[in-house]
Design a protein that fits this description.
Pfam families: RlaP. GO terms for molecular function: transferase activity. It is a single chain. The longest helix has 29 residues, at about 120-150. This protein is of the alpha+beta class. It has helices at about 5-10, 15-20, 40-45, 75-85, 85-90, 105-110, 120-150, 170-190, 195-200, 205-210, 220-225, 230-260, 260-270, 275-290, 300-305, 305-315, 320-340, 350-360, and strands at about 10-15, 30-35, 50, 70-75, 100-105. Among the domains are: about 5-115 and about 345-360, Beta Polymerase, domain 2 (2-Layer Sandwich); about 155-260, no CATH class. The chain has a 5-stranded mixed β-sheet. The chain is globular and about 65 Å long.
């Protein structure tokens, strides 16, 4: 769908990002997210539309969106992500009315059932997103400290021979095919364990298998269950280790080249990525609030921690203090999960009924 058509069919559009959270500064971007209802062929035909990410077309209804990182989602895609309790999606239904650029009666209908989306999945999604942020902080800090000691580190890409690869490593498609096979074995085996089955609903094992090398101590078991040869398992281990080193090298080069100059200046001064740190803190606090039954509160002025998050983003909080705060919040999040009154899963039936009702009424179907 073209931008103008998407915007015309938008039922909800809101300011998001740091300005929504009230932790922005004068240089912060204006980011928006929204929900639209495509035409009938996108629901029952062969055409597909999930979201619009590009806002560079000149003809538009909302000039504020031009040249931003804003997104407008098909209502089906939005509801799917919301049932997963995706933090960046859930907040769209809980923001201040003043932050909506568009809010139609159809958008209001979705807001009316916003509590139906909340479930114990909040614990896994918010802690997962927060962990990803602090992982970046720790990685960047490691790079900063090492670069100060040795400016020539990562000056050259890793050599396959240093990882025991005299021949070519496994191609990406070969590696992914094997990991897909391994995931299927894990999934099949989990059917015999209630705990394992429950974990599969919350943990993205397929993603973990593809993101991290298999632990060396697990390789004998992997070899046994997949009936692989010694040679293949050795090649698999060496390939994964090499590819991880290559990914880190490429990530470092991209980080050095593309990071925002102001952000880099703060990072050099305080020794950590202040933006990722602020996101981590906010996500953990938000997860605790939701599990405690307070709903989603994007506006951090309301919760009283906006000033502290701004201090983190400005590099005014020492790294050790930040890490201590994160550890404390992680414990509070686990405690909130143990005592939460949220249901185990979203109210899928109500969400689907409301989604169908909105689409049918909008399309006069």
């Amino acid at each position: 769908m073209k931008r103008l058509e998407v915007e015309t069919r938008t039922i909800l559009l809101a300011l998001t990002g740091s300005r929504l959270y009230r932790v922005h500064n004068e240089n912060s971007d204006y980011d928006y997210k929204g929900i639209c209802i495509p035409t009938l062929p996108y629901f029952i035909g062969t055409q597909n539309f999930e979201q619009l990410d590009s806002f560079s077309e000149p003809n538009c209804l909302y000039s504020a969106l031009t040249d931003t990182d804003s997104n407008i989602y098909n209502i089906k895609k939005f509801c799917h992500l919301a049932t997963l309790n995706n933090p960046n999606i859930l907040e769209l239904l809980w923001i201040d009315r003043s932050d909506y650029l568009v809010l139609t009666s159809f958008g209001e209908s979705l807001i009316e059932i916003r509590d139906a989306f909340l479930s114990q999945k909040v614990f896994y999604s918010y802690s997962g997103y927060a962990h990803a942020q602090i992982k970046k902080v720790q990685t960047h800090r490691k790079w900063l400290l090492r670069y100060k000691e040795d400016p020539d580190f990562f000056s050259l890409p890793p050599n396959p021979k240093d990882y025991g690869l005299e021949e070519n490593p496994l191609r990406k498609e070969q590696l992914n095919a094997f990991l897909e096979f391994l995931y299927i074995l894990i999934k099949d085996a989990s059917q015999h364990s209630e705990v394992a089955t429950e974990l599969l609903t919350h943990v993205d094992y397929k993603g973990l298998l593809k993101q991290y090398p298999l632990a060396e101590e697990l390789l004998p078991a992997v070899q046994y269950y997949t009936r692989s040869t010694n040679e293949f398992i050795t090649l698999l281990h060496n390939t994964q280790t090499y590819r991880q080193a290559l990914q880190e090298y490429e990530a470092f080069q991209s980080w050095r080249k593309n990071r925002n100059s102001k952000r880099a200046e703060i990072e050099e001064k305080v020794g950590y990525d202040s933006k990722h740190s602020g996101h981590c803190y906010r996500l953990l606090k938000s997860g605790i609030e939701i599990l405690n039954g307070n709903g989603v509160i994007p506006n951090r002025e309301i919760t009283g921690d906006a000033q502290f998050i701004r201090q983190i983003r400005n590099g005014e909080v020492p790294y050790d203090t930040l890490i201590a705060e994160v550890a404390k919040l992680e414990m509070e999040l686990e405690s909130a999960m143990k005592n939460t009154k949220l249901p185990k899963y979203p109210d899928q039936k109500l969400i689907e009924e409301k989604q169908i009702e909105i689409i049918k009424e909008y399309l006069n179907f």
